[in-house]
């Protein structure tokens, strides 16, 4: 596990670094490698805040806790992450994945929009291949929530059609499905 610890408004401490590393070892049993963990330890007056973000294989989980003691904050935030990961694993067990042979390949492209006076067409900044997995709409909503994304492209496991799920401004979800011919 690759761990980055950032101290804000407090002195760096090897004891706190080793404590965070030790506590994060507990969550490794719930999530697949490679795991990248970012921990932010902050002191604001009398509040000690611990924020941790875990990223592994398409899943990002964030948690934050504040108490009067930094060690208690770290314990609380790791407990919270453990509960989130346990719930995530249970949901995945409930959703039987479709056969991998139906997985589609796609490409995500990021473009930079410049002013119309300078250039008439957008410039591609980065392009990378992505795997579009078959899943149900419920599983797609769960994946989107865990990854904190605004939209998700997936293949509907029942119809084998390419769908787009997006988060609406009112907090609900929208689903774009192809019309049946």
Any chance you could write out the topology, listing elements then pairs?
Blueprint: E1 2-8, H1 14-24, E2 36-44, E3 47-56, E4 59-67, H2 70-94, E5 104-112, E6 123-132, E7 134-135, H3 137-147, E8 151-156, E9 162-167, E10 173-176
Parallel strand pairs: 1-2, 7-8
Antiparallel strand pairs: 2-3, 3-4, 5-6, 8-9, 9-10
Helix pairs in contact: 1-2
Give an overview of the whole structure.
The chain is an alpha+beta fold and 181 residues long. The chain folds into two domains: 2-94, Double Stranded RNA Binding Domain (2-Layer Sandwich); 100-176, Sigma 54 modulation/S30EA ribosomal protein, C-terminal domain (SHC Adaptor Protein), CATH 3.30.505.50. The protein has three helices and ten strands; from the N terminus they run βαβββαβββαβββ. The strands form three sheets. Strands 1-2-3-4 form a four-stranded mixed sheet. A four-stranded mixed sheet has the order 7-8-9-10. A hairpin with a 2-residue loop joins strand 2 (36-44) and strand 3 (47-56). The longest helix has 25 residues, at 70-94. It is elongated and about 60 Å long. It starts with a strand and ends in a 5-residue tail after the last strand.
Task: Provide tags for this entry.
3 helices, elongated, four-stranded mixed sheet, Double Stranded RNA Binding Domain, alpha+beta, single chain
